[in-house]
Amino acid sequence: MALSTLRIPQRLLNAIKRAKSHLISRGGSNLKIVKEVIGQADKATTVWSEPYQYIKKTGAVYQFFETSATYYDHDVRLIVVELSALDKKKENTLKRRCESEQLRMEELMKDLQKQPFYCLEDAEKVA
């Protein structure tokens, strides 16, 4: 059974287990278990799969990190998928934020340079 949902009800998990079936689902980022596994995946020591490219034309490279956990007393297998195209998108977003912050700081410096300070105490109050 495949399912795309933010939260899987416990009664559904119990029914799937009784039927000896399997469930594939995308976990929502609001779930504690998902936040924990993403935290594990972000560690520098995490071992990821070898990079894999499904379609040569797009250049997108995938890597996987797999772990297990317990969800509503059910053993579950969790897989985090990392896509190189998203890394580039995140990098660009961070670059824009840094540039914006730098411009803001430069404007602040210009304003402060125009302001006269009469003693060290005055300057420290502004800082």
Describe the protein in words:
With 127 residues, the chain is an alpha+beta fold. The chain is built from 4 helices and 4 strands. The strands form 2 sheets. Strands 1-2 form a two-stranded parallel ribbon. It has a two-stranded antiparallel ribbon with strand order 3-4. The protein is elongated and about 80 Å long. 2% of the residues are buried.
Short structural summary:
With 127 residues, the protein is an alpha+beta fold.
Q: What's the overall average pLDDT, rounded? A: 82
How much of the sequence lies in strands comes to 15-25%
Q: What is the percent of helical residues?
A: 40-55%
Topology pattern, helix = H, strand = E = EHEHEEHH
Overall body shape: elongated
- Strands of the biggest beta sheet: in what spatial order? 1-2
Q: How is the main sheet built?
A: 2 strands, parallel
Distance between the termini: 60 Å
Q: Can you count the beta strands?
A: 4
Task: Evaluate the radius of gyration.
Answer: 24 Å
| Overall SS class | alpha+beta
Number of helices: 4
Low-confidence stretches: none
Outline the secondary-structure elements.
Layout: E1 2-4, H1 10-18, E2 24-26, H2 32-41, E3 62-71, E4 74-83, H3 84-114, H4 120-126
